[in-house]
Amino acid sequence: MGFLVPALLLLLCVPLVVSMMRASELFLLRIEGGELRRIRGRIPQRLLDDLAEILGRAGLESMELRCVIEDGRPRMYGGGDHEVPREVRQQIRNTLGQWQVAAIRQAPKPHGSRLSSTPRITPHD
């Protein structure tokens, strides 16, 4: 019985922790099969196109990119099957650094999970 109360409290806290983590999230993108998709959040089409170009040159096939607010600025975190090369991370930081949080939050909300034109990631030689 003594174990039941802490377990129940822990179970009730999980949704709160998840919602707190998502409160700072601007958007989540996923690369699958050479296609970059918005999973949730808002992202300006121009930023999406720039990211697709950078990621296409890197030849990344599958990963998730999560953009969050840190110290009042957008910051990107990635995870997936491949390590993102340092140069690519720097290009992403440079591109994202041109955007203010307010501009990303005010981007038009896409219809469905796809954006107006879902960028295909094509490797450059």
**Helix coverage percent of residues?**
40-55%
Give the tally of β-strands. Answer: 4
Query: Are there runs of 5+ residues with pLDDT below 50, and where?
Result: 112-117
When the domains are counted, the total is 1
User: How many DSSP H or I helices?
Assistant: 4
Percentage of β-strand residues: 15-25%
| Main structural class | alpha+beta
Main β-sheet description: 4 strands, antiparallel
Straight-line N-to-C gap: 64 Å
What does this structure look like?
The structure is a single chain. The chain has 125 residues and is an alpha+beta fold. It has one domain. It is built from 4 helices and 4 strands, in the order αββαββαα. A 4-stranded antiparallel beta sheet has the order 2-1-3-4. Helix 2 packs antiparallel against helix 3. The radius of gyration is 17 Å and the shape is globular. About 5% of the residues have low confidence.
Summary, kept brief:
With 125 residues, the chain is an alpha+beta fold. It has helices at residues 4-23, 45-58, 86-96, 101-105, and strands spanning 25-32, 35-41, 63-70, 73-80.
